[in-house]
Amino acid sequence: MDPNKKTLIVFSGDLDKAIAAFILANGAAAMGNDVTMFFTFWGLNIIRRPEKVRVKRSPLQAMFAGMMPRGAQRLGLSKMNFAGLGPVLMKRVMRNANISSLSELIEIAREQEITMVACSTSMEVLGLAKEDLIDGVEIAGVATYFEYADNANVNLMV
Amino acid sequence: MDPNKKTLIVFSGDLDKAIAAFILANGAAAMGNDVTMFFTFWGLNIIRRPEKVRVKRSPLQAMFAGMMPRGAQRLGLSKMNFAGLGPVLMKRVMRNANISSLSELIEIAREQEITMVACSTSMEVLGLAKEDLIDGVEIAGVATYFEYADNANVNLMV
Amino acid sequence: MDPNKKTLIVFSGDLDKAIAAFILANGAAAMGNDVTMFFTFWGLNIIRRPEKVRVKRSPLQAMFAGMMPRGAQRLGLSKMNFAGLGPVLMKRVMRNANISSLSELIEIAREQEITMVACSTSMEVLGLAKEDLIDGVEIAGVATYFEYADNANVNLMV
Q: Which of B55, B49, B41, B54 is nearest to B123 (CA)?
C-alpha cells in the first residue's frame, strides 16, 4: 500500500458531484499523489465527447446513449436543478468566485496526469463506445479497479 | 489490516447503485477477497423478500415498509427511471449484453460467501424485521461495521 | 496511518444520509476513534444555523443561500420525501424507536469532540459564510481533507 496513491469511483453524472470529484482528485494530485478516477454508470457522461458520435448501437443502447448528457457542459445538478437553470447559475457563481469550471477541472486533471478509467461493463449497459469518450481515457473492468485500490491509501466513491 | 478484506456500505436502494455495489463486491470476491456488505436505509430494500411478510409493525412502520420496494426485482433507477420504464429497459440491455441481472448478482454473491449484514438501526426506522429479509443475512449495528472496516484495506459506501 | 482515525466526507444534505453519516461518526467515536467530518456542497446545510443570518452575499449567492434548508431540522429525504411529509414521519418513527434525532446526533458528535470541517470552496459557491454555520466548525480546503484522510484507516463519502 502506497500512501501517495488515491482512487475515486465516479458513479454519479451530476454536475455538483462531478465538481466535487475533480476538486478532490486535483487536490490530491497537487499534493503529489498518483490519482486514478474510475468512471462508471452515469459518471461516464462526464467524460463523453460533446459532439454526436456515430457508433454501432442496439436500439436500446442508442436510446440510453441518446438521452444521456454528452459531457461536462450538459450535466444537471443533483439538487435544485430547476430544469437546467440550477447548473447555469452554479456555473456563474463559480466563475464569479474564480473557481475553475468542470471543463477546466478536467483539463487540470489531464495536465496533472490523473489516470482516467472508464468501466467496460457500464459502457456496454449504457451503449457507449471508446469513440464516445474524450481522449486519454482507458477502458477496464472491476479487477483493474481493485488493483489500483489495493495499492492506494484513500479510496472514495462519489 | 488485511489486504484481502473489503467492505461496502450499501445505503442506496436504487437499481443502478445496487448493481454497481454487487459488481464491485463480486469482483473483489472473485479476486480472493473476503467481502462484507452492510445494507442500511434504502439499501435494505435490495435484500428484502419479494413476498409480503406478516410482521408486527407500528402503523408508521407499516406505512414505510408498505411503500418501499420488496427486493431486487422492484427497484427503480436513480436517474431516467421514467416511472418504472427505465429499469425494464436497463434489465433488457443487460440481458442482451450477457451481464448478470441484480438477482443473479446477489446469487453469485452468496455462492462466493460474501457476508451480508443488515443495519439493525435502519431496520427499526423503516419497520423491517429479520423475516422481511432474504436468507443468510446477519443483523448488526455500527460497531460491527467498524470491526470489519478496521480490518479491510478498501471500504466504500454506495 | 493510524487505525484509530476515521474521516467522512458529507456531500449530501439529505436527512437520511445525514443521519447515516452521524450514526457512523458517533459509532466510530464511541469506539475510541478520532473522527473528522468534512461537510461539502449540500452537506453544509446540515450544519447551518436555523436562524437567518445577515451576511454580505452576491445576488446569486443570496439566491442559493436563501433556497437551501437552514440546518438539521429542515432537511428533506433523498427518497419518499413527499413534499416534507416523509421527514416528519421518519422523525416520528425514530422517536418511537428511541433513536436520537439528527439534532441530537449532532450534539452527541460535539460531546464526543468529533472534528467538523466545512469545505471553503463549497461555501463560496453556495454563498455561505462562517456566521451561517453552527459553532465549533472549522473551515478548510481539500488539502486539509487529505492530511486527515492520509492518517486515517477508514475514509468514507456520503
A: B41
